[in-house]
Amino acid sequence: MRVQFVLSEIATGLRRNFSMVLSVIxxxxxxxxxxxxxxxxxxxxxxxxxxxxxxxEVAVFLCPPDSESPNCATGEVTDEQIQEIRDQLExxxxxxxxxxxYFEDKETAHRLFEEQFADTSLAGTIPVEQMSQSFRVSLxxxxxxxxxxxxxxxxxxxxEVVDQNRLLDQLFSIIxxxxxxxxxxxxxxxxxxxxxIGTTIRLSAQSRRRETGIMRLVGASNTLIQLxxxxxxVVAATIGALLAGGTLAAIVQFFIGGWxxxxxxxxxxxxxxxxVAIGVGLVVIGVLMAVISSLLTLRRYLKV
Length: 304
Prior knowledge:
Elements: H1 2-16, H2 18-53, E1 58-62, H3 79-89, E2 98-104, H4 106-116, E3 134-139, H5 145-152, E4 158-163, H6 164-207, H7 209-217, H8 222-260, H9 272-301
Antiparallel strand pairs: 1-3, 1-4, 2-3
């Protein structure tokens, strides 16, 4: 009997405040969509970091023809200088830092360049003889880049030492900024949702003062009186959270999985399994948001 009464009170409240409930659903949907998108971005960033940081190298670029680097004042790197650099990289002094070394000659560099820019205007613009030779160095600890830089930054025949980690850090910094912006928007929208839930519950409580007064007189408990109001907010927030999860699932299924993944097959992008895990979290956030907002509102506007 009590369950039937609570359900009827919930239906009455949702019907009386339909426009406000719809607003709560929409604001919760938008805010939790931003929250879920930010979570997915962070999961993807972590996955990309694990993938790329295990593969990044330190590139020791050797002097090409006509280089303006002070180390290249004598012209293009000679075979003797290349051998000296190789010996240093394979020396016992660097054995604790260097995992693997391989040499990229002009022909290999040119082939990789043509493959990378095959469909652009840069293809075919640089002849083989103008390509830079380089040593590609995999480190045992990628953060020990400065050791290699100190050894070779002033070595004759070395034009430049480049740490690919730094390039990736710049990329991930930009993505992290976008994530922070998304989180900021989500927090703002969540505040709006909390305020809307509180307003909806307050209007519902004021419109049913007579019913709650009668319930008090017949000895109904505080929990029984407050429960329908709390569940109204929970229902609206849950619907918004489910819509947010469904939207993220559609984006991952049709855009990321259907369109983007085939174009970047080198590493795995977020999938529906990640969305399911995040979707559960969004529902929990929505429910907690509704419960807390409802209880705080009822303490002020519904004296029981």
